Amino acid sequence: MIYAIVEFVIIMLSAATFENIIFTRAIGIDNTTLTLKNTKQIFQFGSLTTLVQLTAVIINILVKYITKDIKAPVYSINIVYLSSVIISYLLIMFLYKHFKPQIYEKIKYKLLTAALSGCAYGTVLIVSMRGGDFLDSISYALGSGLGFTASLLMIKTGRERLSISNVPKAFKGVPITLMYLGILSLAIYGLIGHQLPS
Question: Would you tell me which of 25, 67, 70, 112 could form a disulfide with 118, CB atoms 3.0–4.6 Å apart?
Answer without folding.
Answer: 25
